[in-house]
Specification:
The complex is a heterotrimer of chains A (373), B (369) and C (610). With 373 residues, chain A is α/β, with parallel strands linked by helices. Chain A is built from 14 helices and five strands. Chain A has a four-stranded mixed sheet, sandwiched between helices. Chain B is built from 14 helices and five strands. In chain B, strands 2-1-3-4 form a four-stranded mixed sheet, sandwiched between helices. Chain C is an alpha/beta fold and 610 residues long. The relative contact order of chain C is 0.09. The chains are: A alpha/beta (373), B alpha/beta (369), C alpha/beta (610).
Chain lengths: 373, 369, 610
Amino acid sequence: MSPALRRLAGLMRKEFLQIVRDPSALAIAFVLPAVLLLVFGYGVSLDAREVPLALVVQSPDALTDSFTGRFAQSPYFRPSSFRSIQGAQRALAARQVQGIVWLQSDFTRRVERGAGARIGVIVDGVDANTARIIEGYVQQVWAGWLRMRAEERGEAPRMVLDPEARMRFNPQVRSRDYLVPGLIAVIMTLTGALLTALVIAREWERGTMEALMVTRVTVREILLAKLIPYFLLGMGGMAASVLMAVLLFGVPLRGSVLVLAGCAALFMLAALGMGLLISSLTRNQFAAGQVAIVATFLPAFILSGFVFDIRSMPVPIQALTHLIAARYFVSILQSVFLAGNIRSVIVPNALALAVMAAVFLGLAAARARKRLD
Amino acid sequence: MSRQILALLVKELLAVLADARSRWLLIGPPLIQLVVFGYAASFDLSHVPIAIYDQDGGEASRDLIARFAGSPTFAVEAVLRSSRRIDELIDSRRVEAVVVLDQGFSRDLHTGKPAPVQVIVDGRNSNTGLLIEGYAGTILTDFGLAWAADHGGAPPAAVLDMRALYNQTLDSHWFIIPGIVALLTQVITLLVVGLSVARERELGTFDQLLVTPLRPIDILLGKGLPGLVIGLVEASVIIAVTVLWFHVPLRGSLAALYFGLLLFVLAVTGIGLAISALSATQQQALLGAFLFMVPSIILSGFATPIANMPPWVQDLTLLNPMRYFLVIVRAVFLQGADLSSLGSQLWPMAAMGLTTLAMAGWLFRRRMT
Amino acid sequence: MEPTARETDGRSSAAAGGEPGDAPPAAIRLEDVRRGFRSAGRTVQALAGITANALRGQVTGLVGPDGAGKTTLMRLIAGLLRPDSGRIEALGFDVARDPLDVQARLGYMPQRFGLYEDLTVRENLDLYADLQGVMPERRAPRYADLMHMTGLGPFTARMAGRLSGGMKQKLGLACTLLNPPQLLLLDEPTVGVDPVSRRELWQIIEHLMRETDTAVLFSTAYLDEAERCDQVWLLHEGQLLGSGAPSDFSAEMAGRSFYAVATGGRRALQARLAQTAGVIDAVIQGGHVRVVMAAGAPPEAKMLPDFPDLVLTPTAPRFEDSFVARLGGGRHEAVAAGSRAHSEAGAPALASGDRAAAAGPVITVRQVTRRFGDFTAVDNVSFEVRRGEIFGLLGANGAGKTTTFRMLCGLLPPTQGALEVAGFDLRTAAAIARRRIGYMSQRFSLYGDLTVRQNLNFFSSVYRLTGAHQRARLAWAGEEFALGPMLEAKAGELPLGFKQRLALACALMHDPAILFLDEPTSGVDPLARREFWRRINALAGRGVTVLVTTHFLEEAEYCDRLLIMAQGRVLNEGTPDAIKAAARRPDRPDPTMEEAFIAAIEAAAVPEAA
């Protein structure tokens, strides 16, 4: 073994021993991802089900029953009847119901006369997203009712259009199926950048970096010896997360595992590059942790398209998202999990990741000098 | 308040404000989060790229395409003449949806047959997909009603008259930004309180404090009060930015908002002090704060409704002070709530504040003896 | 990379100062080396033009107080920093140009020994062997040698983090010696390490010097260690005050050092001598006062009319005398201010002399035991301290003195036994008891982000001073400790000596009856230390009881009584003179405090080993 290889092997062995013995490294690499996945997998859902809904029918009869009955059958609503609109509004204000459907006393008369009966719908607009989803559900119920009524009366349906929506890749519209893959990118950012930045800052703080530097080790060897173990650790965390996603949360994995692994490796390199760069900027763990959270974790969370749609963001912020590695990886993950090996998504995004990895690692290597100043 | 506690409070505030690093902690991340969340975190859709596969090519279909193109929600990227590119456009994420109009679209309309319209949505982000469906549905319904009116067809038996209370335009910024008041207040209070004892332990000044005539309760108060003060000040700044910069209406009683804020900050201070008492180093305190913060934000209803969570997780959120304060902030901002209507949200926070402070006091005494 | 040629005669010729032509190549050659650091917007000149040479086969001591620039110089030589100007040559290489060539032949132990605490002793050795390119087949004998030399043999499987300070230091040294270096840089290896371990380290170095011609650069703040070096570079505030053999330094002080004895008490005598013209140094050493006279100012027995029976006995000069002489003479205006204040407030008390013995106990420790899990840190310790006494607590690392100290301050409860301070148990007594104690720890635990004034305000308020009294005490602190010009400076940015003064001012704000000092002078320069002890002496003279822990055995000389601990038990108790007398042997007629301390520890260790 050449002296350079021996030095590298020695440093890497040290790193592995430290990882195995340091509970916080293992916690960040494995426990934190598991906890985050569990919390998100179970806690985060944008799928409104059983929305509490107030039904106010001022003069109930068979016609109004045929309408309100459809709410009771819908899995999206949990209706309750109110006598007066005032009572329903009080319930809305008290957040006991999220919407009101109001049939006034002249409803049946107007429907039968064909004189443009109106169905009053009031939604709680505080949670705008949920409100929109509720509005969509109410529209579906209403359209269904119109169709049913037309069929019952043997009339030709009076519908002008017959819309049909098809949700590709996620026909059951489970938000977990897209949140969990996206979350993996966030978690890997945490392992890659935060952990690396912390462990290098720790060497500075404890004075061991100084001792390393005066041996004949080269800077490249020091960087490689950090890179390889944490790369493997990150990939381990990745594998564990993917297993959890597929086995625990039942997220389909439609693309190939190899493509996933390849892209994950590229992303991991970019994340590690960021971590190395952060650690070259700050030499104390506290500051490194701060910078890593603000510069990598939060953007990965908010600006990666993981939850919030990038194309609906203001243009300057959209431009900013191009600097965030997680953005490319989230796109790859959502495709590989839900859609499959889609070349037109994977290739450009993987290229972007490769470029980012090269830039970050290059910068880290360029900044690293075997000196303290 | 005794002079000693006042001295501790003053010292604590001076120390936080004099140290560049902790000043950054108070100003930097909150500012970034406020801007980023304020602008980027929104569920509203705008300029969503779509394509339309128009097999009909008639006047009616052009009219419908114009409706999509005119909507601020959608940007029509391509009008396709063949079906070949549909899959490619969706798969490559160049468009998020494709609207397919049948060959017989115009004919069906004129013969009074319901004209089939297919909306194919990219479900890789199924929330966006659902919203796209909703928006597209509204455009199609409006088109249908207009067509019927223009061509003397009978109107539907009943029409929906939809209204949203509190947020007429359903602007989701109004939902997210008041939530940031709660989010940032929690983050800052927790960091200020959680790290302060650990920092003194690391510097060795904690021993110095312990040998002074200060009693444990004095130290507890002296450490907790700065968090309270800083939390309240920071929250006030964020509230001001929310109202003045982001123009979110503040409709309810400020007194109710601040009473809720006070109880919330108290509860968070108690948690911060408990973390403080348990951790020996700032590193541990930071990790502890992080471990509490992430689940508490996710399970608070900040971004996703608690009602959508499984029942056991919903029960868990009852222990999360932020859950209650979020309701208060949003109720006061958007619903115009006052104190009397918020009792059910206030008392759990008060109870949590008392419990966590008592627990922190106990942990403190135990660590000292 | 073993040194190929062993120039056995190199040492003697170099020591004799032979012509540059025959002398072995200098291991280190510094030419007008300058280096500054930017801090808080201004440049601090850490090294202001250093020119010096160090030779192979010699131990060069880099001596100076904290902040003198020792670490910066070490890092420059190791190639970790670049000089702003000037030239550094090590082992014949230009360090700035070829750092890797130097580093391949270098052993460097940074201040915290550079060990991985979560790796075992063996794993640390393996790592550094890999890094230094020690071939696997050569490792076993080398490890064996080093383990034998350092006595770490039985601990190879132990985590480095669980070694004592002295053992860490030896392991750090072993790691730098795996591949015998041609130049060994040791940055303050003896800081925070007890006297026994310090002596063992020196034995290892002496052993090394006998076997190789390695050049050693050894930095230290302990001036007494300078005397063990072949050559000394005396550094102060970035300037080289002098270089040469330690004997050269002391030679210039020949005939100027004396022991003074007189009735009326050593403290009063010391205070009086310190203010006498012609005296540049007066420190208490056991029962007498050690006096150093200015050049050309021979002492007379009658120079102090108020001490008519003054007796002066000449004694050998020390390295420290020369340090004080080179720096001395009104360097700190605070020294003058401090002593002025003392001579007013403290004079009546001083006149009564050492009267501590008359008063009853103020601190009582009765059969105190403290356990941490299975480990007994303090085992059935009892002692008493009387009013106005300066009482020293000594011990090796892990001897239990810190635990005892923390129990006395009320920071830790005893597992068994009773402690009383001023009649109260600090654990249980109300906060009121704590108003009577002052506490100052080795790290000068102040709020570094607050200004001097804010620190003083805070501590005075915490000690419940109010109104006019508070204002008066604040004014007193500013005056007494000469903090006036620094009031608006951040405490963290003060020079160490000022920090120490501020820490003492804060501890004395409320005029405590008892003062606890935990390693109060570690790292400060000898002048600041003298000034500090002048104040402490004056306080003791006024009846303040002082309890002090220290590694600095010279400091033990200031104490009225000492307690030496080992393995949680009391080994020895008595006056410094009595303790030294107990260690007297035919081959050691006049033992130093350090020799006496080591003798006591070793005497205790023998029966255990047997």
